[in-house]
Each structure stands twice: as C-alpha cells, then as structure tokens.
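Practice set, problem 2.
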Amino acid sequence: MIRGLYLGALVVSLASMAVLDRRWRLFLWADARRGAIVLLAGIVVFLSWDAAAIRLGFFERGHGQALVGVELAPHLPVEELFFVTFLSYLTMVGHALVRRLLDRHEAERDTPRETERETARDAARDAHREALR
C-alpha cells in the first residue's frame, strides 16, 4: 500500500466537491461567509465527537499503510481532519443540491403548463364572445 494514499484520496475528493460547488454555486460559492461558518461548525462538532470517543477509549489510531503517520493529537491522525472536512462539505453541498432541485420542482409545479394556459385563454375568449352576443 502506498503511504499517504488515503490522504491523497481525501484531498482529491475535497477538490472535486469544490469544483462541483463552484460550478453550481451550491454552498461556499453561494454564500462564502455563511458557508465557511457552517463548514467550520461541522468540523468542530465532528472533531469534538472524535475527541470524546478517543478519551472514552472507543477510538484509537489505526496502523494502516495508507496513512501518513502524522497525528494531530494522540489517536487522531491528520487524515481525520480531512475526512470530517469532506464529510461536512459533502453534506452541505448535497443538502443545497437537493434543496435546489426541490425548489425547481415546486416552481415547475406552480407554473401552469402551456396547454393549460392555452385552455384558459380559449375559455376566456369564448366567454368574452358569449358576453358580446
């Protein structure tokens, strides 16, 4: 196994998510300040959760060959920071995408179709003609 492979995969995944976010302006590119605050909050929550789990003995550092070997704290590899960042970012981009699709669907549902418009226009024209007789 190649040392650093996992970290590299996380960095590529984060970069890919940023490209998608930028392209469709879903999260950070929609509102950078708010997005950064929400992303940072997610990272803090997940790292706090990890710290509590480490302190209680639920987590310990793995010894996989794909890890870089650098720890931010005992039993907290640097890859975990990138993972929780990716997880938070993925969640928010996914949420923004689903919300956009639902909003679009709702807007399409509320907008009368062309045939409905034509039917309404024809009915109004017929009613107007009847009124003139």
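Problem 2, part (b): a different protein.
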Amino acid sequence: MNHSPARQVFYATLASLTVGASAWAHHSFSAFDMTKEVDVQGTVKEFRWTNPHSFLVLTGKDAAGKAAEVRVEMNGPGYLVRNGWKRESLKPGDAVTVTVHPLRDGTLGGDLVKVTFADGRTLSAAINLNRVPAPGEQQ
C-alpha cells in the first residue's frame, strides 16, 4: 500500500497525539491535593518496587481511630534510587509516618512526599533533578 506524504504526516500526527494524550493522562496528579501535606502513621503492609510507580500499603487508622488500609502512590524506582531508596528500604512490619499529598475524595492515602522511620531517618520521594551523587554512587 502506497500512501501520499500528506496522508503519512496525518497518520504520524494522529499517532503522536494519541500516545501523547495517554502519557499526559497517566501522569496527571489531579486525584491528589498538591497544595496540602498530611502525615499518616502506620505499619508497612506491602511495598511494591515497580515501574512506572512504586506503591506502598500501610495499616493505619482512619479519622475515627479505626484500623484502615492506607494506599500511597510513589515515583518509580528510577527516581527513588536518586533519593537514596533501595528495594529493601521498606519492609512489612516497619513503623513509619508518611507525609502525603492527600486524595481529593477524602479516601485515606495519597501521593508520597516522604517517609519518616521510627528512628527519625527520612527518605524523600520528591523528584530531585539537582541532586549530586555521592562519591562512588551510580548516577
């Protein structure tokens, strides 16, 4: 099949718009209130080190003090590693406080800002494009 150059440009443009729109929709933060930060205490139930986003599930408490599952979305491993994270950074049973941009619908959970461990250590989940690697650290 031989298509004219104009038709080829049309199909290429259509494909670009389709892929671009789905990529933009995937990276939307509209579910989260990015103007607020909320601290939630809990115990790690599950930590998924996956692309395109890592995911954390905690057992915490809701506003009424009842046990509740807290679901937290995170950046992918590529970004987390740049902030000092490892696949083993969070283990089931770890007591942590997560700071999140909360979900707009009021559901317990959100987009991770940082994790604070019981011993005071913190790990940031922010995209840190200006971080300089430590000597010997892979970039």
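Answer key, part (b): The CA atoms of residues 100 and 113 lie 5 Å apart. The longest helix spans residues 5-26.
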